[in-house]
Amino acid sequence: MKTLIKLEILRSLRNRKFLFFSVIYPSALYLIIAGGADDAKLPGMRVDMALYYMVAMAAFGAMTAVLIGNSEKIAKEREQGWVRQLRLTALPGRGYVTAKIAAVSTVSLPSILLVLVVAAAVKDVRLEVWQWTAIALCTWAGSFVFAALGVAIGYLASGDAVRPITMIIYFGLAMLGGLWMPLTVLPAWVGDIATWLPTHAYAALGRAVEEGDAPHLQDAGILAGYLVLFTAAAALLYRRDSHKV
Amino acid sequence: MTTEHSPVVEFAGASKSYGSVRALSDLTVSLHPGETVALLGPNGAGKSTTLDLLLGLRPPDPGGTVRLFGGTPRKAVTAGRVGAMLQSGGLMDGVRVRELVGLACDLHPRSHPVDKVLESAGIAGIADRTVGKLSGGQEQRVRFALATAGACDLIVLDEPTTGMDVSARQEFWAVMREQAAQGRTVLFATHYLEEADAIADRVLVLHRGRLLADGTAAEIKNRAGLRRISFALEDGADEAALRALPAVTDFDLSGRTVRMRSSDADATMYALYQLGLYPRDVEVAHLGLEEAFLAITRRAEEPGADQGTSGSTDHGDEPGQSRGTGREAAAV
Question: I need a labelling partner for B174 at 20 to 30 A (CA). Which of A51, A242, B18, B130 fits?
Answer without folding.
Answer: B130
